Every structure is written in C-alpha cells, then in structure tokens.
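User: Some background: our group keeps a shared notebook of sequences we're curious about, and every so often someone picks one and asks for a predicted structure to add to the entry. Today it's my turn. The entry only has the sequence so far, pasted here. Could you supply the structure so I can complete it?
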Amino acid sequence: MIHGDVTQHQLRKERPVCRRIQYLTCFMLLCFSAVAWKLTVIQVRKAPRLAEEAARKFQRHVVIPAQRGSIFDCEGDLLAYDERVYDLHTDGLHLKEVPILRTLLSKATGVKVADLRQFFTEDELLDLYYEHVVRVLAPETGIPEDEVRETVRSGKPQVFLAREVREETAAQWVSVMKESHIFGVYLRPNVIRRYNSGNRVPLVVGYMTMPEGGTEPVPGCGLEKLADSHLVGTPGYRWIEHDRLGRELPLYRGEEVPAHHGKHVHMTIDLELQASIDAILDEACAIHAPKMAMAVVTDPKTGTVLSVSSWPRFLREDPGGDGNKVWRNHCFASHYQPGSTFKVITFAGAMDRGLVNENSRIDCEGGRIKWGPGPRDYLNDTHAMGVVPLLDVMVESSNVGTYKLGRLLGKDGIVDAAKRFGIGARTGFGLYGEVPGVLNETGWNASSLSSVPIGYEVCVTPLQMAMVYGAIANGGVLMRPRIIDRIVDPETLREERVMPKSVRQACTARTAEKISAMLEAVIRDGTAKNLFREDLRMAGKTGTVRHKPEGSVGYAEGVYDSTFVGFAPVDDPKVVCSVVFMAPKMPDGSVVTGSKVAGPVFSKMVATTLEWLSTRRDRPFKAQLVAKGEEQ
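Assistant: Of course. Here's the predicted structure to add to the notebook entry:
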C-alpha cells in the first residue's frame, strides 16, 4: 500500500516532465514532417524546374561544326574552302555567378575571398570583376574598353565581342584569359568560307552570303549554289557538364553526335588555262575598248566547259565596283544578237530537210534583194555575187543567199531548226542566273523572215552558241554543258564522276560533216582567211552585228558587235570557242568586223587551249600539222 502510494506520487510529480517530452516529440515530428514535405516539394513538384536551372548552369549543348566541302579546279588546285575560326562571346548567366566570380577575382588580385565577402556587396564585386575583364581583354583583343565594358554589363544571354578570329590568335587569347582567371567570356569554334581563286572565275565558283536576320550563311550563286546539296555538311553536337569554375567534367559528358563534313567538288575549269584565256581577252579589250566582251571555251564531244571569261572583270573584293553591279556571269546570263554566226542553223535546217545539198546553187541576186513592199525593204551583201554554189554562200557570208534558204524553210522550219540546236531554252548548265535567250516562235512580222535566218530578231548567250557549234563538231549531237567534273567524299575518298550527257540529235551527222567543211573554208578562203594557219585546221564563222544599246529600241548608228564561233582541229575537234565583243573600236578607225576583232582572239584561245590539253596526262593531244612534208 505504501509502495503503491509512492509510485502514484512519483508519477504525479513527474507528469509535467512527461508532458514536456510529449510536446518535444510532437514538435520534432512536426519539424520532420515539414522537412519531409519540403523535400517532397523539391524532389517532386519543383524537380523539373530545378533540374532545368541546374542544367542551364552546369550543362552546355556544344555544336560541332561541319566543314563545307571545298571547291577545286580540274587539276586539284584549291579554290574555295572552310577555315576554322573562333567567335569571342559572353555568357550572361556565368557573368552573374557571384560565388565563382569572387573566387576567381581573389586569385587574380591576391585578395582573400573572406575579405571580398566582408568588404564588398555583390553589386560592387560584379563591378570589380567586370573592370578586371575590361583591363585584360581590351588591350589583348584591340576592342575599345567602352565596347568591352558595355558588352559584359549588358546582361544579355550572349553577345559577340569578336568574330572570325584566326586559330593562332584565338589560342593566344585563351592563354591570356586562363592566366587572368576570366570566366563568362569564351571562344566558340566556327568556320568561314575562304576563296583562293581571287578574281579568277568568281562568278563560277560563287559565294556564300548571310541573309538578313539569318544565323547561317547561304549560297548566293555559282558552284556554291549549284552543288550546295553536295557541299553542305551535317553539324554534330555534344552535351557537356562543367563544374562551378567552368571546367568540363569528362565523366559526365552526355550524348555526342559527330559532324559529317561536306563533299569536295572539282569543276571542269583549270585555273592555269583560265588565266591564259583571261589574259588574251584583256589584251584585246585594251586595244579595242569594247563595252563588254565574253569568251567561252568548251569540249565539243563531252560538253565540258574549259573556260568562261568576261570583261570588265568582276572583282570579288569590290562587288559594287565598275561592271560589278550584280553577280551576273555574262557568258550565260546576258544575251546578244548572233548575226551571221547563226547562219549555220539555217543551213543545217535546210540541208536536213533535203531542201538543198552541197551541190546546190543559189542565186544571190548580185548582193541585193527586196524582201518587202517598203522602199527600204532590201537585204544587202558585203560582196556582190550571182549564182554560186551553196559553199560560197557560207564562205562569203551572203545574207541574200541565207535569206533564200530561210524562205525555203519557212517560219516553222526555222523555229524548229533553232529549237533543235537549243536556241530559246536554257542549256541545262545549272549555274544560277542562266537566261534562255530569245526565240520568237509566233509573233513574226513582215521583216522576220529576212532577219531571223541571218541572226537578227533572235538572242543567244555565248554559251549557247558554243554548244551549237559543238553540235556541228560532234556529228550533230547537242551536248549539255558540263561544269562539275567529279565529287569526292573526304571521309571515304569515294569519287563520283559527273558523266557527259547528250541533249538530242540537232542535225544529221552528214549535215554536220558538210557544214564543218564549209566552216573550214570560211577560214581558208572566206571572210576569216586572215586567221588561216598552215599548222592547224580550224573551222568557224564570223559575225558582224549592228549594236543595240541596252534598253534601246533601235540600233546605234555606225556601231557594231564583233563575234566569232568555231572549233579545231577540224578532223578531230577538241575545242570550241565562242567570242563576243560588244561595240568595240578599231584603233585605225576602220569598220569593225567579226574577222578583225573577235576572230584573232578566237585563234589565240584555240591554240592556247590545245597546247594546254597536250600537257594534260589524262587528255593527250598533239595538234596535227598539215603543212607539206610534216609527219602526222
């Protein structure tokens, strides 16, 4: 009884203590519950947002640039290539990481971290760090201090301080920034397009341009645009994780996809030959001062374009200069009236239809014929001729004789013959800006039948005429011009040849052979006999056309265009050359003709090209000498 009383007494005495223990237990359970709830909120509800913030701070998506394929000439000389460069930029998020910046500033200045924490607010510390960045970067990069200061203080996610920094310069900047403990300013790898070809065929090679508001350059013209699907590569990427000091943690490197570089494109033009053709054209332009001059050299059997040259020269470094208002290659992006060089089409049409043959005789009416009722509706020849063989009509370039062939063909026959040779349509060359020329198929007037057969009221490009004469030299087969020779994969070294393609049979092989003989006679005995050479059989046709100023309705009085198109050697044609001079002048003041201005340029270009072909290992050729006693 006494024992029980003592126990109850003690319990009553200790009851407050037990109550306090209960309260403490409840309080601790409440605290643990609060912590558990907070952890649940963080781990479940806020987890995505917090993970995103952590990733933004410590993870980076690094793009691995893909190099654009290079462009080479046919002999493998580099014309256009990607060069690795670097862009200096800021990271606005990293430039606000006060704890990291405080540590780095301590290392850079020698002041203890505790002192920086004690004596400077966060805003003051950021000011100190930004000025440190300015002092280091401004003199090293040459960027004005105010510009660096404004950039690092902008608070923007990313601002570029410098672009296209060369690799050796970038390496030096990285070293300086590392020694000076710079954080939040980085060099990012990039690529830029470089052009080794300078002002040689810039309109064929093309260019890359940055569109307004764009982030990636796009091809503007030339092979850069034509072969873009082959040249363009596929960029890769890599996810990396870094520590608070910005150092990568290789163990935590994420997904990585390698870049696949673009393929290399080899064009058909050789820079050495191109330089020679350019020099010949420049020399002639210095003498004759034309408004414009163009020359195209091709291989008649394959349609391979060996050279395209135009004057005035297009300057890559000054695209807005004289003659450089637009990136337009006049060899295939401008047209002109071909004049007498068009007559081969009229002849081919008439001979293919059996209207005439090599034995036919044509009455040239003494060099003058009336084609219409008007008092001025006459067609004249330079040389008065009567009834002459068909050969003489071509040799002496008789307008009257050709007009009579046109009358036999009629409108439909002339249009059909022109279309079969590709007049009025793009050649399929592929380069941006090519024009189809002008072929009036339906709206003929009273003068058309006397004009179109002799190369008026029709417009062509120098490239089109080169392909026309290439068809004559190639047994009547019209080829598609070919500017890409091969495409090479830089990773596998697999080479893909771009094979020649024929368009159609423009005329029969027999007609082509007969016209070739006539064109050879033009140089041997006719309007271009000043070009005759004993050591090289050439065939071609002169053209002297009244000059029509751009935008004008009529012709300029006493001003002519000089043209010449032909091929060589006649027995095994390997070169076709089309030459056009717009409104040239003769130094002695005499009348401009096709044989005086364009003809000699044609002769020089053909000889130069044949010599070049003879030195190529894959294209052996020796010009056959036809002089007496010379061995073949």
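Suggested note for the entry: The chain has a mean pLDDT of 87. The radius of gyration is 39 Å.
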